[in-house]
Amino acid sequence: MKKIKYLMIFLMGTIVLAQQNPITLEESLEIGLKSSKEIRLSESVAISADAKLSEISSNLYPQLSVGFNYNHLSEVPVQFSSPMFSATGGAIDALYANATIEQPLFTGLKLLSLRNAAEYGKEAALVQSTQTKNEKALTIHISFWNFYRTEKLVKVLRENIAGLEKHLKDTEMFFQNGLVTKNDLLKLKVRVSETKTELIETENAFEIARAVYNKNLGFSLNILSMCAVTSSTSLTLI
User: Fold this and answer.
1) Domain coordinates of the chain in residue numbers?
2) Quick check: helix, strand or coil at residue 71?
3) What is the mean pLDDT of the chain?
4) C-alpha dihedral, 224 to 229 to 235 to 236, nearest 10°
5) What is the pTM for the complete model shown?
6) Mean pLDDT (whole number) for 31-58
7) Do 211 and 225 contact (CB within 8 A), yes or no?
């Protein structure tokens, strides 16, 4: 039981570490578009519309039907007599085959209307599928840049706070030696406090941006994802 527990912990840790590798925008698009349920649904609708068009179009072609019939007759030999002629036979099996070709000549343009409607339905489904892919790609772009922007902003604010706290420590020493006024010291403390408040708000925005990004890629919301920007990063629609 302990071995299973340790194995599960190891696997969970491996998954988290795997997700900590930076993901580029191009990789995000590839992952997000493949895992999108909306895209799979729109593609299935397009496939269904194409199948419907093929089914209706097939009704305009000649229909060939072939049939076979087998009869097993009585075991008693056949005997027949009449004033005109007589016959005796021992056939007990009979096999019949027939083939029929049907071609609709005129159905009040019903089949043509159905085919035209199916063609429009297929075109509409293809357009909707393309639109769904583009909308999903745009959503991934937006979530990627929001995630990247808030991630970098959190880093900048933490660096600013570290610098301000060091500056505040030096200013307190200067104040004790009478080199700065108390007003200058209080202003710096307020600035440090405001920057820390801004950091808390940005960290919350970062967690929300990461959850949205993970959702668009089909990841768990609490996965520790990371994104990376390359020189080839650009907005690409399907």
Assistant:
1) 20-38+138-238
2) strand
3) 76
4) -80
5) 0.64
6) 87
7) no
